[in-house]
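Researcher: Next entry in the queue.
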Amino acid sequence: MATVLHAHRGSAQFPESVSFVVERPEDQQVFEAALQRAVA
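Model: Structure for this entry, 40 residues:
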């Protein structure tokens, strides 16, 4: 999902921002790590 969102953001005007809600701090860490891998 992070890879698709990153690619979309580079070529589309909208949506300008996207928010994600996670239940636990551990989930946030996993999501942020995946996002960093996708944009690297």
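Model: The helical segments are 2-11, 25-39.
Researcher: Noted, moving on.
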